Batch of 2 targets.
Target 1
Amino acid sequence: MSHARTRLDRHSWKQNQEAVFSDSDFVWEQIVPLVPEVAREGSRPEWTVEIVRNKASGRLTLRYAIGGVVRIYGKAYFDSSTAAETHKCLTHLWLKGFGRGSNLEVPQPLGIIPDANLVLMRSAEGTSLDKRAASGTIEAALSDSRLAARWLLQYQSADLPKLRAESPCEKLEILKISDAIAKVAAECPEHSSLLIDMIHDLRSVAPKSNAWPPVVPMHGQFRPAHVFIDGARATVIDIEKLCLSDPAKDVARYCHVLLKTCLEERGDAERYGRIAREFVAEYRAHAASNLENLPYFRALLALKGFAKLLKNRKVEEIQRQWMCQAYRAEFERLVQLGQVSSLAA
Amino acid sequence: MAESSISDSAKVKQTLALKAEELIAPEFIESRICPLLEPGAGASASDCDARIIQNTGTGRLTLRYVFDPGNVVFAKLYDDELGTHCHEVNRELWRRGFNKSGRYRVPQPLGFLADHNLFLMRAVPGTPLGAAFDGDSSIDLVSGSREAAEWLAALHLSSLSVGTPDTDWDSLKLFRMASRVIKAVAACPEKLDMVRELMALLEQRVTTLAANRFSVFTHGRYHHDHVFLSPDATSVIDLDRCRPSDPAKDAAEFIRVLRLTAFKEGFDMERAELATSAFLTAYLAKVPRAAATLGCYWATFVFHSLLGGLKKSRNKGSKSWDQLEEFYIHEMKRALDFGR
């Protein structure tokens, strides 16, 4: 049906584009003119291209290395309007406070190749926060997390024109989680009672009225792996498909991915917990009222993580069970927190 | 959870039934109900036939007191705060013209006994619109549906606002839908793709619902069985769930239940189509702004019904489950096309 057709369309698009992006003429005629230091040279140095991300969604991430020193990233989109929108937002942010030297940065946009739905940008400098969170001193990791919170706060106060606002039901993501859980319930019906109980609990911490905190630009994939730290500078990548939404959603995503990474990598739970708490504390110190719905969104992500694990057969059974318990405990903690907050309000 | 819900429901039912025993005793009727009736009515507990007429475990129990055929009182016993809410809504609507002086009415409120959480009201005149499905020739489904539309428009155009405004996700019952999806696909995993496809279609529509939309005072359970028709009046009962919300919620619920009942009972579907059209034409002429979201609410409510039925996949009325499933899908797609 339509899901399958879209998947096929995207698959075929990716196959075509991979060939286009590896073509010498394309590189010299379309890419190089957008990279001033290479274009100025006039020579044709060696280049390589690598597909660094190619998931089921309608996008590809490429890395070009030109002349051994210049490294640029390309993001190609199945949908032409997403490419144009991404380029516009990235350029706007770069020019309005997130440019070089601001310390809270986005990758420098180099241009867009409209015929290929391809946006080009420089690579972010530094090391991603997921790597820094896993090793090094805890003080450094906490400092990184505070910097990430400040980046998010500044980003959420940016004035990005003509961004679409998520509707109330869209913000809540209840249909999205229903879809994710449906797949689990069909495969593992023995867990359906538990999942229904969890949906009831989730509802108990859902917003109680149509009055939401004011919407802000949402990154949508604000996770430690997308935050690059270089000294006192934070650069956040993956600026695409932006919209306006509840500010707590990006905060929830960041905390959730820290937990997920910790569980998957069998990391130090105490350390990851502190890093997440530091992030929330720094954020809360500047914009506490933005976090009204944080327990709901964190519980939503914990439920999603838990449900996906129920049918996961790739993880070793003992670890899978242990991770399920951890997600469930986190979910229950957040529900309790949300219920207490509701009562207090 | 399903098991605990069943036992909770049985417990609630039993508790209310126990409380109701006192409420049908002659001493209670004499001391608490008769004083609420007109002094000249000559109502006496000894002549009263009092009985429980509904107790389905929802936390509400309905009692009927028949003093004589022209003097019938209904009472609703609650186990929560809905009793005071319903009394307030009923009293306000009655005061604002939904009374004997007008065509569009609610039951006349007689009083609220706070110590028992019991709301008392007079019976409304007429026959329920739903009698058309039982072969009652005095009720015409088409003209009755038009009357139902007029009553609903009168409610939606009133300036009354009692209770907490509905959230979008509650008015669409999205959390309940999530639970139903789980139950449905756990029982029928082979239907997963179908459920997901329909849910994706629904999501496209639901996500277009704007924030801060037009809101009115809604009924919340607007079914044909709650609409009573008589030559002089159209009256609507069951005001428990009245609250400010999207007007499309009531209109969508009405047409969903009407059409599904007609289909299940093997009623003439051309007649049901005419009734749908009469209802929508009359209602949208008065509340045109509801058209923008009607398709979304209609499709969502049909999807709820489909999920509810899928779990058991049982035949209903004169229809097999396969026929019902096909009907639901057709109705849902039709609803999604509404207003486009």
Target 2
Amino acid sequence: MTMRYFEDFKVGDTEEFGNYKTSQEDIIEFATEFDPQPFHIDPDAAKEHFFGGIIASGWHTGSMLMRMIVDNQVLASSSMGSPGIDELRWIQPVRPSEILNAQSEVLSSTPHKYKDDRGFVKFKHTILNQNREIKMTMISTILFGKRPAAEVSQ
Amino acid sequence: MSTRYFEDIKIGDAIEYGSKTLTKDEIIAFAKKYDPQPFHIDEEAAKETIYGGIIASGWHTAAVTMRMMVDNMIDTKASLGSPGINNLRWHKPVFPGDTLRVRSEITDKKRSKSRPTMGTTFGKLEVFNQHDEVVMSFDSIGMMLARNTED
């Protein structure tokens, strides 16, 4: 994958990636450690619940999105990390045996005020399943290094 | 513990709870699955970064925070889940051996107009390390069952 820098993320740019498969085993494993509520870890109890079956912890869904973002936008980039998330919305629960994709849209691009070599890119990421149902949305910021001068002149 | 319903939550209520120490093995295991960036999973690569060593994925910090909330604050009888969170900030890195705790304060509450048997609570949640530094904070939103249909 080509290395991407701050300049490569332009307002309005969209892309889609992921193909992330969920499983009951993963959902239960995550929730047993981090979110042991009955509708995340107990298939029988979950049947009686409003959702009618096991659903993933919202933080698990967020972590799955992170994996998709890391694999497709962060690793082959000059990312310097993220200051945080402006807004996270759990729209519909994620269930076992779904295939998730992430849609990415660049909302804004702002050079760092004091450090000339970097800038903030604000994204909206939307998780969709195989039926194009929206599961989660997230507005967050990633700090990217600018393209080094040596590469600009090439 | 008796079930705490919407009416039992008061604006200004603040509690501190939890004590979770993250080990290097836990940090690496989480990050290999969900956030495989070099400074989360590779000790040698992490030495070259500004952090000087492995740090936890921000999502790992959020996940262990959720565990402390479930163990200490969320009443599964009255909780109806959450539509989301706002303004999450990772203020400082979390290193192996750091011990985290949570401070949670209720900032507002609103009974549902369309479904008065439930209400929404709004909170400010902060996660501290053992040096009393805030490592993460966010604004929480919780939906809860009410005991009655009016205050």
